[in-house]
Amino acid sequence: MRRGQGKKRLIVVAALLALTLFFSFTVVAAEDFPRLIHLSWQNDPASTMTIMWRSEPEAEGIVEYGEDFAQSVQSEPFRYRFGRTQVCWQIAEITDLEPNSTYHYRLKTSEPWESEEYSFKTAPAKGEETSFKFVIFSDVQGGYEAFQQAAPKIKAENADILLYLGDFTRSSSQEEYDLWLESGATIFTDVPLMSVRGNVDGPNYLDQFAFPGNERWFSLDYGNVHFLFLSTMLEDEVIEQRPWLLNDLKENDNPWVIAMAHKPAFGSGSQNGPEQYIVDNWVDLFEEYGVALYLNGHEHSYERTFPLKGGEIDEKGITYITTSSTGDEFYPAVRTWLTAQAEGEPCYMVFTVEGSVIHGIAKGTLDDSILDEFELKLR
Ligand SMILES: [Fe+2]
Fold it and tell me: Are 44 and 100 in contact, with CB atoms under 8 Å apart?
């Protein structure tokens, strides 16, 4: 072979190789997978935001944010294997943000991939009486189609926070968590989601989200509300939380205290029923330290109690709300002496906090009916 011919062949091979590489990149980009972008807080909601999204296992990522996307923060990969699925989350926490402010952001990874542009809003500073809105939903538990249909309605509420009260899936598989996140994808890119663990959520629930503290129980201040996120998985865990809960409530100086967990303390539902161990270990602290509202799921039907104190109806007591499933499995309403309102339909709830008044509304997802509407005033 003459030397010139060899050189020509080398150039052709190199060009073919370059073309193959170019097209393989194009294929990766064209067959993109769901990035399952979601926002939450690991620290102060007024000055931080945590973003999680999926990437190829070896990819590196950044979040660009702020005016002209001039600021950026690098993400940390979090990799694990669930069955045959290799999972890689990119997790980035943005800090030093201004309270009650909207920030635009976009994500980039080295695959290469770039997200659309989204935005999030930080919380008002702790103690501020700025009005805000939160949505609660719960127990989708396999009803992903129903949740997907409810998602645009939830998005249209323009809530500042999404609170999910547990039981995401049926089997706690990675595939099901992915389906859950995909069903609400249009909301999760812009509104932070905080949740509590339900009884069907396995240990891998903790891999899907980023929360403060041990992620099983924690508290957050959003404006003038102190939110308690509690775990009612097992009686032992409820007992274990008591010293933490006492300390947290003692240190709180926000006027509103709203507690939430998966299982009910009081309620009439018989499908799963309330748990006496919650009453025995927490309710005296709730009553002593001014908890106004306890929110839970688990029952797959809706119920709001009259205010209760010392096990009796008392206008200075705590309102207990069991929100229904936002999926497709729901049960008939049950009413007893403590029931102010009950409905056997799937729903989500919208709460508007306006200084010393909280307005609540339960919206049925089957026919957009109003299942309940009420007002709480600061005592
Ligand atoms: Fe449950």
Answer: no
